[in-house]
Amino acid sequence: MKRFISILTMVFALTLSISAQKQTTQTKYTTTYTQAYDNAESRMAQVLVQPLVKPLVCEVEVVPSKPTSFKLNLTKTKVEKDLEGNLTNVHNYGIFKYTEATQTDMIVAATYHLYSTDDGDYVLEIKGFPAKFKNWHTATNSDYEWMRITGAEGAGNQTITPIVKK
User: Fold this and answer.
1) Residue-level pLDDT at 163
2) How confident is the model at residue 19 (pLDDT cuts 50, 70, 90)?
3) What is the pTM (predicted TM-score) of this model?
4) Closest Cα partner for 122 from 87, 146, 156?
């Protein structure tokens, strides 16, 4: 029995020492977060600005002394990189150069012929009638009526067919 009590005492003492070695002191830190929230709302009258502008109208006068054909040599780089290989861009660039060369405002009834050369470059041929704008004026009531009949942009969505009296 002595032996049993001494073994029990040793096991108890060993348990206490193991327990004492495992105990660690941990300090828990408490962090308090403060979050502020603020919301304000107000009503404001929004002004939508849609200016109404009276259209300008003019006459187009073909300049008969100007050449009716124009040839423009374009490099492969100009067509494929600068103008992105887009045919519309090439046409617009050609019209720009044509009006610049003839010192006119537009080319009436333009036709285009674009072809590549043996060296890989391009040639754009444009045929049309160089013209200038003249007699600029603010639209009159008769101009508005003409725009409404023809369905010109800005004259409303409705087109009207004129009635011709005999």
Assistant:
1) 55
2) very low
3) 0.59
4) 87
DSSP per-residue codes, the chain: -HHHHHHHHHHHHHHHHHHHHH----PPP---------------PPPPP----PPEEEEEEE-TTS-SEEEEEE-HHIIIIITTT-HHHHHHHHHHHHHHHHT-SEEEEEEEEEEE-TTS-EEEEEEEEEEEEEEEEE--HHHHHHHHHHT-TTS-S---PPPPP-
Question: Would you place residue 88 in the very low, low, confident or very high pLDDT band (cuts 50, 70, 90)?
Answer: very high
- How far apart CA 89 and CA 81 sit, in angstroms, is 11
